[in-house]
Design a protein that fits this description.
- It contains 9 helices and 12 strands.
- With 355 residues, it is α+β, with helices and mostly antiparallel strands.
- The strands form 3 sheets. Strands 2-1-5-4-3 form a 5-stranded antiparallel beta sheet. It has a 5-stranded mixed beta sheet with strand order 7-9-10-12-11. A two-stranded antiparallel sheet has the order 6-8.
- Helix 7 (237-254) packs antiparallel against helix 9.
- The longest helix is centred in the middle third of the chain and has 47 residues, at 113-159.
- One of its GO terms (biological process) is regulation of DNA-templated transcription.
- Keywords: ATP-binding, Hydrolase, Kinase, Nitrogen fixation, Nucleotide-binding, Phosphoprotein, Transferase, Two-component regulatory system.
- One of its GO terms (molecular function) is phosphorelay sensor kinase activity.
Length: 355
């Protein structure tokens, strides 16, 4: 349903804005409210504002106080109910008078919005800095590594196959090859130009899902919760598959003890549309969100601010490259990955702009 012209500007805001009657009936909900509450504007207009607010008494009192001109405006904190799979949303609420006598303006600002923006900017700066460092470091490692491997092979020829010392040269060659593989993985996102084509995010998810189920045929459940209205976008399909696979495989590996113990191990792919999103200081009217969630033990608190840095891993035997490479790929698509984690629920959110 189209918004009246006098309210159309509210759709440009990232804060949640409602125009309501004094008794709570919704006259208008802006695009940001639709996105956060997973509701259409038409559905919102059939409900009361009080249906979404926990402990709504303060909200009722504030609406009446502003409507009766006892106060010019009222500000307080509240918690909103959202869709069944979404966490409650903490907001700062500002109630003020609307244009008409029987209209009130309710603006809600996410309590975590500023924190999230700062985290996104910090993540972008970290990846940019580490990208240049890794590229330079990898090139510096490759040259002496090749010489080391070649020298070990020549030494093995001099020693001859009968010498008991060749096992040591074999170790040198093997370790050189292992380091070469590590360097190649570090440089992989920078070596190849993206192969841009039309990408359907659900085809990406289905490919990753099938790969996971082949690798973990027993004990792992992979669920889908798709918004099929999401359009195709331009991107490198194979790179995006790799990014999503790195995140999902990391989750499965962390949940391996749960599978071994016969406990439920679940990964969920959830897609949603987001409106009025800022990515890398650029504003986009529409974006897609891919949430990759698991019910594992969560990211250790001491690693949560560093998990996208290279060579940082909370798993024994991990290289610490999977999440870094995923972030690099997504950022090459002008997007971003962020993470929310607690024991029993970890959610990686990939946000990509839509044309």
């Amino acid at each position: 349903m189209a918004a009246p012209d006098r309210w159309a500007a509210f759709d440009l805001l990232t804060t949640l804005v409602l125009v309501v009657r004094p008794h709570g009936a919704v006259c208008f909900a802006n695009a940001a409210f639709e996105d956060q509450m997973r509701l259409s504007r038409r559905s919102a207009q059939r409900q009361s504002l009080f249906d979404w607010v926990l402990e709504a008494d303060q909200l009722r009192d504030s609406l009446q106080a502003v409507h009766q001109n006892r106060v010019a405006a009222s500000r307080f904190e509240a918690v909103l109910h959202r869709a069944p799979h979404d966490e409650p949303l903490q907001v700062q609420v500002l109630v003020s008078a609307g244009d008409a006598a029987d209209e009130l303006l309710v603006e809600m600002i996410e309590a975590t919005q500023q924190t999230r923006q700062e985290r996104e900017e910090r993540s972008l700066d970290q990846v940019r800095s580490s990208k240049d460092l890794i590229r330079n470091l990898a090139h510096e490692i490759k040259n002496p590594l090749g010489g080391l491997r070649g020298a070990a092979q020549l030494l093995a020829l001099e020693l001859g196959s009968d010498s008991g010392l060749t096992e040591y040269t074999d170790v040198i060659v093997h370790e050189a090859d292992r380091l070469q593989l590590l360097v190649d993985r570090l440089l992989a996102p920078h070596r190849h130009a993206p192969e841009v084509s039309d990408v359907n995010i659900h085809e990406v998810c289905e490919r990753v899902r099938s790969l996971l189920l082949v690798e973990y045929p027993k004990g792992l459940t992979v669920r889908r919760d798709y918004d099929i209205s999401l359009p195709d976008f331009r991107g490198d399909r194979e790179q995006l598959i790799q990014a999503a696979l790195n995140i999902a495989q990391n989750a499965a590996q962390v949940m391996q003890p749960q599978m071994d113990a016969g406990e439920e191990a679940v990964i969920t792919f959830r897609t949603r549309v987001a409106r009025q999103v800022t990515l890398g200081k650029q504003r986009w009217k529409l974006a897609l969100e891919l949430h990759i969630e698991d019910n594992g033990p969560g990211v250790p608190p001491e690693l949560r601010d560093r998990i996208f840095l290279p060579l940082v891993s909370g798993r024994e035997g991990g290289t610490g490259l999977g999440l870094h490479l995923a972030q690099t790929i997504v950022q090459a698509h002008q997007g971003l990955i962020d993470c929310e984690s607690a024991a029993g629920r970890t959610s990686f959110r990939i946000t990509l702009p839509l044309p």
